[in-house]
Structures are given as structure tokens and as C-alpha cells.
Design brief:
Structural class: alpha+beta
Number of domains: 2
Radius of gyration: 38 Å
Oligomer: single chain
Number of strands: 10
Shape: rod-shaped
Distance between the termini: 29 Å
């Protein structure tokens, strides 16, 4: 082999080892960078000279180690966990409204019936009569508090829906901007490297917000929502919108104006919509139904007796015309202690009708359960939903840990491995450098010999 060929091989080896050292140093530098995929070099045997002798090595390029399947699984689990986390956080807030305390509906309802029972011992006692009205006012306040708390939380969730949609649109624009750059790199045979890592992290951020489907195409990654609405196609992104429906709840629409709210189930947006559109409305309906049926039953019991003036009992509670809004609008119909219809025959000392009022506590409402049991069922429902969301969050978190461990074992940087590579490539570089030096010296000797011979 000629000296020129040997020198060429050594120089190409230096270049290849330099590239390998750069990749190794970059891996070590990014060992703690979130989402970084380690890079490896792809050396290739060079084409031989015309004389058939070898031509050493060339560095074809760099390759990031990643698994698209694993990436999609992580995105899917991220969507599920974020949805569960959003539900859990919001349900825990709702749970405080229905937690047993001195001011919750169940406690105040029991206090009302207890005050009615106390009045039966002395139906003409003004203090005991006032206690009944005060207990009624406390129960009304408990209904108002629960209804207002749910309405306030729903308003907050509406704001969160708007924010999530804005963040989704922003991420979609960033992902679309990377698609043409990645496509150009791949078409030229280069590895996406850092840009692909950036896009993967953006996709994870998007998965935390909503459920998406990712398809790899020749123009980059195409993203669609749960119902197939396009978010990103090539270098173009399509913005979602929010609109407010007749009951004040935010809806999500695609660029064409189609309502896609029901198709959004994953991510923070999906969990928020679940609580905002289903859980809270169902609880408000149950609360309104309880307030309306309870107030109606108490008014009916009042009407069966006589007050201290000898008149037929009037309403204890005022209610709206329909069931909707009853919890927010129920109020005491009287502040006059003499209007409590304790008597069953019109006599001032009679307490016969108080049994009818007390019986409301153990009589089934139109819903099929007693007032106390109806409220207890609501408390159980909230507790059950919270427990389910917590269990889902825990399960998906454990699954994500396993998937990320798999990703780290494949794509993550091992300092020990990279340190070994660093030594190996340094030694190869030094060996190639010695070859270059040796050949250079041989050239010098050869040139000196030729000069001496001429002399």
C-alpha cells in the first residue's frame, strides 16, 4: 500500500474518531437533559482504491436511539394520567362541599328535625319555635353554600377549558413548525436528533392536555383529536376554538365550527370537561331535586296543621317554579314563629301536626329515598368518583414509570458506557494520529534522501 493511501486511511480515521468523540461528549453533556435521546455514530468501511486495497473508514453520520412505539405508549399513558389527575384534583375540591361538618346539608337537616322534635314537648314555647326557624334558615344556607360552591367551581373549570385550548393551539403550531425541518433532514439522510427530541417533548406536553392520535407521514407527524379532527398536517396547524352554550358551559369546536367536546377524553382538558360537563351538572341536578322535593314535602306537612293563630299552615319554604335552581333559590317563607303549624286541631297546645313534619325525615321522596338517604347517596357518589380517579391516577402513574424506565434504558445516557466509549475513541484517535505522524516523518525522510542524492 502506498504512503498516500496509508495517510488517507489515517486521516479518515481521525475524522471518524473526532465525530465519535463529539457524539460521546454530547451524550455526556446531556445526561440529565429531559427527553434527550443518546446518539451513536454509524461508521462505514470506505470504498477501496482501484488497486483493491482498503481505504479505511468514513463516518456516515449520527443516529439517535429512540423507539416510536414506546413514545406513542408514553403519550397514551400521559393522556390517561393527566385526565385522571384533573378529575382527582377537582373532585377533591367538590368533596369538601359534601364532607360531614357542622354546616353541611345532612347535619343541618338533622338539626331541623331535632328542633321540631324538641318543639313537640312544648308547642307554645317561643324559643323552641324560633329554634325551628333558625334551623330551617341554617339548612337553607347549607343548600345555598353547596350550590354556589359547585357553580363557582364550574366557572373556574370553564376558564381552565379556555386556557387548555389556547395551550393546545400553541403546541400544535410549534409541532407544525418542526415538521418541515425534520422532513428536510430525513430526506437528506440525516438524523433528526435534537429537533426530534424537541418534537417528542412537545407531543408529551400536548398529551398532558388532550387525547391525540399521531401518524407518521412523509411530511412529518400528523396529529388528530379523538374524533379525527386535524390539529397538525405537515407544516400547518389548525386551531381549536371555545364557545359558550346556553347554560354558560364552555364547548370545544374545531376550525369548521363542529362541536367536538364529547370526543375529548384525555389529558387535562378531557378530565376538566368530564367534571365540568357531567359531574357538576349531575350533582347540581341532584341537589336541586333534593331541595325541591324536601321543601315541597315540608310545605305539604305544614298544610295539614294549624298555626298559633288558628289558621291552616302556610309554606315553610319558598321554591322556584321548576326544579332547576332550587338549591340556590330555596328560602324560608316565614320569619314569624307563630306560623309554625304545630297543632292538628287548631288548639294552641296541640302538637299533633309536628309528627307529620317529623315524618318527612323518614318518608321516601319521589326519587325513592328519604331526604337523609338522598343526601348520603350524593356524598357516597362524590367519594366514589374521587376514589376511582385516585386509583386511575395511581395506576397510570405506575405504568408511566415503567414505560419511562424502558425508554431510559433504550434512549437514556449511561455515564459508565459513555466514559468507556470516550476512552476507546480517544485511544483510536491517538493511534490514528501516530500513524499520520509516522507517515509524515517517512515523507520527510524520503524527501531528504532525494535531496541528498541530488547533492
Amino acid at each position: 500500500m502506498s504512503l498516500n493511501a496509508s495517510l488517507n486511511i489515517a486521516v479518515q480515521s481521525l475524522l471518524a474518531d473526532t465525530g465519535a468523540l463529539q457524539a460521546t461528549n454530547n451524550n455526556i453533556a446531556n445526561a440529565n437533559t429531559v427527553g434527550y435521546s443518546r446518539q451513536t455514530v454509524t461508521p462505514q468501511e470506505a470504498a477501496p482504491y482501484t488497486d483493491g486495497q482498503g481505504n479505511g473508514v468514513v463516518l456516515e453520520g449520527y443516529q439517535s436511539i429512540r423507539s416510536e412505539i414506546l413514545q406513542r405508549q408514553i403519550e397514551q399513558q400521559t393522556q390517561e394520567q393527566s385526565s385522571a389527575d384533573a378529575q382527582q384534583a377537582n373532585l377533591q375540591q367538590i368533596q369538601t362541599v359534601f364532607t360531614t361538618s357542622t354546616e353541611d346539608i345532612g347535619t343541618q337537616m338533622s338539626a331541623l328535625f331535632s328542633s321540631i322534635s324538641n318543639l313537640s314537648t312544648d308547642p307554645t314555647n317561643s324559643s323552641l319555635r324560633q329554634s325551628v326557624l333558625t334551623s330551617g334558615e341554617n339548612l337553607v344556607a347549607a343548600f345555598h353554600t353547596a350550590s354556589n360552591a359547585l357553580a363557582t367551581q364550574q366557572a373556574g373549570l370553564n376558564t381552565q377549558v379556555t386556557q387548555d385550548v389556547s395551550d393546545i393551539n400553541s403546541l400544535a403550531r410549534q409541532i407544525a413548525a418542526l415538521n418541515p425541518q425534520l422532513t428536510a433532514l430525513k430526506q437528506s439522510g440525516q438524523d433528526g436528533g435534537t429537533l426530534q427530541d424537541q418534537q417528542d417533548q412537545l407531543l408529551l406536553s400536548l398529551s398532558k392536555l388532550t387525547n391525540i392520535s399521531v401518524t407518521q407521514t412523509e411530511n412529518g407527524e400528523t396529529l388528530t383529536t379523538g374524533n379525527g379532527t386535524a390539529l397538525v398536517v405537515g407544516g400547518e396547524s389548525f386551531a381549536l376554538q371555545t364557545t359558550t352554550n346556553s347554560d354558560g358551559v364552555q364547548q370545544v369546536t374545531d376550525p369548521a365550527g363542529t362541536n367536538i367536546t364529547s370526543a375529548i377524553s384525555g389529558g387535562d382538558l378531557g378530565g376538566t370537561l368530564q367534571v365540568c360537563h357531567q359531574t357538576i351538572p349531575e350533582l347540581l341536578t341532584s341537589l336541586d331535586t333534593l331541595a325541591n322535593q324536601f321543601g315541597t314535602a315540608m310545605n305539604a306537612a305544614q298544610a295539614e296543621g294549624y298555626d298559633q293563630n288558628g289558621a291552616m299552615g302556610g309554606n315553610l319554604f319558598t321554591l322556584p317554579a321548576g326544579v332547576a335552581g332550587s338549591a340556590a333559590d330555596i328560602n324560608m317563607a316565614t320569619t314569624d314563629v307563630s306560623t309554625i303549624a304545630a297543632s292538628s286541631d287548631g288548639s294552641s297546645g296541640s302538637n299533633g301536626n309536628l309528627a307529620n313534619l317529623t315524618a318527612v325525615q323518614t318518608t321516601k321522596l319521589a326519587t325513592g329515598a328519604t331526604p337523609t338517604d338522598t343526601y348520603a347517596n350524593m356524598v357516597y357518589q362524590v367519594g366514589s368518583l374521587t376514589a376511582n380517579a385516585t386509583a386511575e391516577s395511581t395506576a397510570t402513574a405506575a405504568s408511566l414509570v415503567q414505560l419511562n424506565d424502558q425508554r431510559n434504558s433504550l434512549s437514556g445516557v449511561s455515564i459508565d458506557e459513555e466514559s468507556t466509549n470516550l476512552i476507546r475513541y480517544q485511544q483510536a484517535y491517538e493511534a490514528a494520529a501516530r500513524v499520520v505522524t509516522t507517515i509524515s516523518n517517512l515523507f520527510d525522510v524520503t524527501m531528504s534522501m532525494g535531496t541528498n542524492a541530488a547533492s
